[in-house]
Amino acid sequence: MTDFASLLVADRGQPATILYKVAKSGFDAWMAGLPQRARTAVAAARFKAEPGSLVILQGDKVDEWNAAVGVSEEGGPWDLAAAAQRLPEGLYRLAAKEEPGEAALGWLLAQHRFDAYRSAPKPEPVRTLLTSDAAMIPEAIRLATAVARVRDMVDTPSADMGPAELQAAAEALARANGAACRTIRGDALLEGFPMIHAVGRAAARHREPRLIELEWGDPAHPRIAIVGKGVCFDSGGLDIKPPSGMLLMKKDMGGAAHALALAGLVMESRLPVFLHLLIPAVENAISADAFRPGDVLKSRKGLHVEIGNTDAEGRLILGDALTLACEGEEKARTALVIDFATLTGAARVALGPDLPALFANDDALADALLAGGIAARDPLWRLPLWAPYHDMLKSDVADINNAGAGGFAGSITAALFLERFVVKGVPWAHLDTFAWNPAAKPGRPKGGEALGLRAAWAMLKARFSPDR
Fold first, then answer.
1. Angle formed by the axes of helices 254-268 and 137-155, nearest 10°
2. Which residues are catalytic?
3. What is the DSSP string of 167-216?
4. Structure confidence by residue, pLDDT tens digits, 212-224
5. Which of 43, 271, 399, 460 has the most CB atoms at less than 10 Å from its CB?
6. pLDDT for position 377
């Protein structure tokens, strides 16, 4: 993991290169205030303050220089990312005593690299940003670490990120924060969580299915449950995917990565809640023992589910996990349940790669998540739990079918399926996220990405932080 603490440090008057943030609307005024030598350099570089553009300004001495970066009009977390990727190693201070604020996140993440599989990774220059607001540094580092955790886990090939590795990640997080962690496998999983077992039973023995459970905090505090889909590779099962559909399926555990990262933020920030983290971890493999189209599975809740498509497996494992999240006397104390899942291609057809689809059975929770997304510049888009579409999940032989009929509204029918496993009265939100950047942008390389994580964290802080 990148040493983010070396990239954002308190300003104690250290010698540093000045970095100007320039938006298009302020370009002319900024340009007019520069000495002639600097104006000539700006003109020669054709710098017009386009977001992400960079120009070096020579000072009066040979070894003296400053820099300017074009930023967005509205400001945002990625304003300094291009500069952090392109500037030479050294210390930097924003001009006019400006503080980095939310742009510190982009500065940090722009310098994170996933190079675990490079035989000779190139050393990354250390570009350190100074800030007079030392109090913001720990939160910025925690958030950057959480996002990097999601990226690294999703980018890791499935051979090295199976159910056992998800378990190890949860156990390491528990040890670091004094949490309790247990894992249910084998006969106990078959008996208590039959849909998780059914989806994962075809995998190799060392990749056997499991339910990973972590608890942390004071039981007297409000209880929150975080659930993450941990399908470590999805072949589609007997309804096998085509090669193009299988190529990125190492990222099908992206929901689990988001859940682990959010749980880490909760614990590391000592949020006054009682945390219950649940990760059903499986590989949807093909073998003689694979579950089949037409099978009827009994769920933990007691509902019988007809399998219309083995490639709609994520909702099955989440169903058993959501049932546990809502069980027992503690459900009366449950403030909210939130799940993350790379669940449907239909959500991506509707919203593209950047916008997670948000479903919620509670308007106040949905509004809080949407507000968190706006505040964190991590937008969500709410879609309806449209009750008439329950008819698409009807089964001729069982209580419900796992695959919606007709091919319409796939993300909505998937969310409606999950809703059947949530106890009425328990506020619940479901984020159908892509967990992937299909193209690189400053601070956001192509590959695994945390989408919806910062929105959820902003919501939890707003609701439960003692400083709210």
1. 160
2. 241, 315
3. HHHHHHHHHHHT-EEEEE-HHHHHHH-HHHHHHHTTS-GGG--EEEEEEE
4. 999 999 999 999 9
5. 460
6. 97
Interatomic CA distance for residues 458 and 295, integer angstroms: 41
CA atoms within 13 A on the CB side of 61: 2
pTM of the model: 0.97
Hey, what's the torsion of the CAs at 161, 166, 172, 174, to 10 degrees?
160
CA distances 177 to 85, 161, 227, 269, Å, are 32, 22, 18, 10
What confidence score (pLDDT) does residue 425 get?
Answer: 93
Span 76-101, pLDDT tens digits: 999 999 999 999 999 999 999 899 99
Tokens of 43: 């003109």
Q: Which of 169, 314, 170, 339 is nearest to 251 (CA)?
A: 314
Task: Find the mean pLDDT for residues 424-452.
Answer: 97
Separation of CA 71 from chain center: 25
Of all residues in the chain, the percent with pLDDT exceeding 70 is 99
Torsion of the alpha carbons at 152, 154, 160 and 166, rounded to the nearest 10: 90
Give the N- to C-terminal CA distance of the chain in Å, as an integer.
31
Only one residue has tokens 């607001």, namely 133
Distance CA 206, CA 167 (A): 12
Distance between CA 194 and CA 44 in Å, rounded?
67
Residue-wise pLDDT for 61-74, tens only, equals 767 899 999 999 99
State whether residue 444 is helix, strand or coil.
strand
Would you say how long the chain is, in residues? 468
DSSP classification of residue 293: T
